[in-house]
Amino acid sequence: MTDTEKLEKFQQRIDNGEKIEPKDWMPERFRRQLIRMISQHAHSEIVGMLPEGNWITRAPSLKRKLTLLAKVQDEAGHGLYLYCAAETLGIDRRELVEQLLSGKAKYSSIFNYPTLTWADIGVIGWLVDGAAIVNQTMLAKSSYGPYARAMIRICKEENFHKRQGYEIVATMANGTLEQRRMMQDAVDRWWWPSLMMFGPHDSESPNSAELIKWKVKTKTNDELRQRFVNLTVPQALAVNLSIPDPDLKYNEETQNWEFGEIDWDEFYAVIKGNGPMNRERMRARNRADAEGEWVRKAAEAYAAKRAAKPRVAS
Ligand code: 3HC
Q: Residue 295 burial (CB < 10 Å; 0-12/13-18/19+)?
């Protein structure tokens, strides 16, 4: 078959709703797009451990500490899961990690904001994991088999993350005046960065058209953002928290919560590395990588020794 015929057959498989598996023929561009998206997703999970990890030693009770520990540990697992999914595309995990450590690879903008109070931990679980669930539920239907399957397991754990976050939010929103103020302050700081997680407007998104054609994404950035807002505003109102957007209003006809314009200057500044915590996150990741080098070398040495050992017939 000519490349044109292969491409036509590939698109036909996508249009038929078939899953593309690692050993199937795929356009190089499809492979590169998936490596970009899946590796950035993996980096986001690993870097995302840092803002929340900041509060493990300061959780207000043993129960909150255990729950936060479990969540941060889950995020590490999500990252490893996603690096495995990326490796099915023929790239080495170490190469992906080096891209992150050198600042060449992106990770989600949301993790470049500071976690200033315990209320932030509740808001992250509720808004950030809530946004991730909206996005990842869509990705669970992605045309690339390993990515879609990874999402199914990750979404189950994200639901636990969101519930534990919203329970913290509801507890503090119904707590003392000081707790209510602390929670409202956290919502004010995290609301707009959470909307930015879904990426630029569809008209400004260089990757969306191709990803939609290949059903890697089955919904656009703006569709997912609107779905997130529609789900989340009622949850805020249910615990008497306000959303920091004077333009927010419910449209009875479309049944959408219409919202104001995102500060795209802030968004592009953050993804260019100039957010409040970008440098700190990169310093922490590089430090952890250097301090963990002996573990990697020991594991490699052990694996090499095991491989060299003659197999004894069982
Ligand atoms: N943060 C950082 N970069 C972003 C971004 C964000 N929130 N939104 C968009 N970008 C980047 C894109 O990576 C792209 O840059 P690149 O071409 O150099 O990679 C550029 O901005 C233009 O954006 P596009 O809309 O064209 O890019 P995509 O079509 O890839 O859409 C995306 C961006 C929505 C993030 C999409 O890549 C995606 O769905 N990725 C998979 C999910 C993911 O990565 N989620 C991150 C959060 S993980 C998380 O929340 C962990 C949970 O446990 C809390």
A: exposed
What would the pLDDT profile of 101-138 be if each residue is shown by its tens digit?
A: 999 999 999 999 999 999 999 999 999 999 999 999 99
Q: Ligand 1, atom 39: nearest CA belongs to which residue?
A: 135
First-to-final CA distance of the chain: 46
Q: What is the pLDDT of residues 165-188, one digit of tens each?
A: 999 999 999 999 999 999 999 999
Return the half-sphere exposure (C-beta side, CA atoms, 13 A cut-off) of residue 223: 8
What's the whole-model pTM score? 0.96
Structure tokens at 156: 């189950």
Q: What's the gap in Å between 231 CA and the centre of ligand 1? A: 21
Of 34, 35, 106, 217, which is best to mutate to test ligand 1, by the most ligand atoms within 8 angstroms of its C-beta? 106
Measure the CA–CA gap between 178 and 88, rounded to whole angstroms: 50
**CA distance linking residue 135 with residue 122, whole number of Å:** 20
Q: Which residues line ligand 1 (CB under 6 A)?
A: 36-37, 40-41, 44-45, 48, 75, 78, 106, 108-109, 128-129, 132, 135, 158, 196-200, 205-208, 211, 221, 271
Judge whether 15 and 75 are in contact, CB under 8 Å.
no
The whole-angstrom separation of Cα 109 and Cα 270 is 6
Residue from 37, 137, 139 whose mutation best tests the ligand 1 pocket (most atoms within 8 A of CB) = 37
**Ligand 1 pocket test, candidate residues 36, 45, 197, most atoms within 8 A of CB:** 197
